[in-house]
Write a structure and sequence with these properties.
The protein contains six helices and 15 strands. By secondary structure, the protein is of the alpha+beta class. The N terminus is likely disordered.
Length: 355
C-alpha cells in the first residue's frame, strides 16, 4: 500500500455475503438493525415500509424561481468577486473557486468562547466560505464530467483545504455538494461549497471516536476489505478506489467512496488518488441518475482535522434525497432505510433498462 502503513486484520467470515432477507412467518421481524461503526449509531433496514403510499417518491423542486441571470455563468459585462483559485488550460477557466457572497463563516477574529450564563455560550463565527464551480457550463453536473475534469475538481478541493489549513485559528475544512433544492441548493449552476471553520464539527468527532474504538487497525481499511470480499454491495471498484452502498446504510441508495490508499487528509492525498475519487464519484452519480432520474443529493467529504494525532481515513459520502426524515429519525437519531443496501447496489450496478 502506498502511503501510511496499516496492519490489516482479517474480517470475520460471518459477514461474508451478508444480505437482507425478508421474513414471511408471522412473528418474524421485518426490520434489521445495523450498527454504523463510524458514528456509533443504529440504522433500521425495513423494505416493507417502502410499500406505504408515496413513501418513495423522488422529488425535484425547481432550484430557482425567478429569471435573474445566473451568477456563476461567465459574463463579460458582470464584475465577479476575485477568484481564490482558477484551474484549466486555455483562455478560460475549467474549475473556479470564488468567495461566497453570503458566507456562513467570515472573518479572522479568534474563536474565544464567552459564557453569558449557565446555558448561554457563544463564540465568533470566523472562517472562510467559498463556492467551487465545476465548470462554466450551466447544466454540467459531476455525473457529466470526464475523468480529467473530475480530477481537476478534486485538485481544487485539495488546494483550497491546504490554503485553509494555513490560516490562523482554523481547525477543519468541510467540502460539500448540494445538488437540487431538496439537498439545499439555491442556485442551479452545478457547484460545491468549501468552508474553513474554527472548530471540529460533531460528525467528525463522532467518526474519530469510531476509528479510536476500532483499535489495532483502520476502520475503513477493514470495511473496504470486508465489503470487497462480500461483493454484493459494490457499485464501482478499480485499483485505486471502492464505491459501496455500505452495510449500515441509513439512506436509500447511500454510497461510501473509499480510496484504497490509507491517509487521513484529503489535502495530502496523491494526485492519482484524488483523480480516482473524482472518477468514482462521476460513475456513482451517473449510475444514480440512470436508475432514479435527476434526484437531489448531497456529497460530503470527510477528512481529518488539520492537526490530529488519531487515526483517520478520508472518504466521501453520497446521500440521495429520496426519503423524508420524519419524527422518529429526528427524535432518536436512528434512521430507517426502506431500500436494503444490497438491493441498492445491485440496482446501481445493473445497466439501465432500454427506453
Amino acid at each position: 500500500m502506498v502511503g501510511q502503513a496499516v496492519s490489516r486484520r482479517p474480517f470475520s467470515q460471518g459477514y461474508r455475503g451478508a444480505r437482507y432477507v425478508r421474513h414471511g412467518t408471522t412473528g418474524d421481524p421485518v426490520s434489521q438493525l445495523r450498527l454504523d461503526p463510524l458514528k456509533g449509531r443504529w440504522s433500521v433496514i425495513n423494505e416493507e415500509r417502502r410499500e406505504r403510499p408515496f413513501s418513495f417518491q423522488p422529488r425535484r423542486l425547481p432550484v430557482e424561481t425567478d429569471s435573474r441571470p445566473c451568477p456563476f455563468c461567465p459574463d463579460a459585462d458582470r464584475e465577479d468577486p476575485a477568484p481564490t483559485l482558477e484551474l484549466g488550460e486555455g483562455p478560460s477557466w475549467q474549475v473556479r473557486v470564488v468567495p461566497n457572497l453570503y458566507p456562513a463563516f467570515e472573518g479572522t477574529v479568534p474563536m474565544a468562547v464567552t459564557n453569558l450564563g449557565p446555558v448561554f455560550t457563544q463564540a465568533p463565527g470566523s472562517g472562510v466560505h467559498e463556492v467551487l464551480l465545476f465548470g462554466p457550463e450551466h447544466h454540467r453536473n459531476w455525473a457529466d464530467l470526464d475523468d480529467q475534469h473530475a480530477a481537476l475538481v478534486m485538485r481544487a478541493v485539495a488546494e483550497r483545504m491546504t490554503a485553509h489549513s494555513s490560516l490562523p485559528g482554523l481547525r477543519y475544512s468541510q467540502a460539500i455538494v448540494n445538488a437540487g433544492r431538496e439537498a439545499g441548493a439555491s442556485i442551479e449552476h452545478p457547484h460545491g461549497q468549501l468552508m474553513g471553520i474554527p472548530f471540529v464539527p460533531r460528525e467528525i468527532t463522532d467518526e474519530q471516536a469510531g476509528f479510536a474504538r476500532f483499535a489495532g487497525n483502520c476502520l475503513l481499511c477493514a470495511a473496504l476489505d470486508a465489503e470487497e470480499s462480500a461483493g454484493n454491495r459494490i457499485v464501482h471498484a478499480d485499483d485505486d478506489v471502492l464505491v459501496v452502498c455500505p452495510y449500515w446504510s441509513g439512506t436509500p441508495f447511500e454510497m461510501l467512496v473509499l480510496p484504497r490508499n490509507h491517509g487521513p487528509h484529503l489535502a495530502r492525498a496523491s494526485t492519482s488518488d484524488l483523480a480516482a475519487v473524482g472518477r468514482a464519484l462521476q460513475r456513482g452519480l451517473a449510475a444514480l441518475r440512470a436508475r432514479l432520474g435527476d434526484v437531489a443529493y448531497n456529497v460530503i467529504f470527510h477528512s481529518a482535522p488539520y492537526r490530529t494525532a488519531g487515526d483517520f481515513h478520508w472518504h466521501a459520502h453520497v446521500l440521495p434525497k429520496v426519503a423524508t426524515v420524519a419524527g422518529f429519525e429526528l427524535g432518536t437519531g436512528v434512521v430507517i432505510n426502506v431500500v436494503a443496501p444490497e438491493d441498492a447496489a445491485s440496482s446501481l450496478r445493473a445497466p439501465p433498462a432500454a427506453a
